[in-house]
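ARCHIVE CARD
Drawer: 12
Card no.: 0347
Subject: one protein chain, sequence and derived structure
Cross-reference: see card 0346
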Amino acid sequence: MGKNILILAGSPRPGANSLIMAEAFAKAAQKNGHAATLVKTAQLRVGGCRACEKCWTGGKPCIQQDDMQKLYP
């Protein structure tokens, strides 16, 4: 049974070396029976931590409604 792998690529430049490596890793993982998801984080809208501590008391990963909501699952 394969693993679920989340790959976060942070470079904002198309064709960056780190993106090429992340894509190669994802392809190799999929070839070996794993589910690999590549996310280009520079294309997401993610707010910084506001230290509101709602994540500790509110039962949700974060109170902010940004693109991180797509990554939590």
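Annotation on reverse: The mean pLDDT is 91. Residues 17-31 form the longest helix (15 residues).
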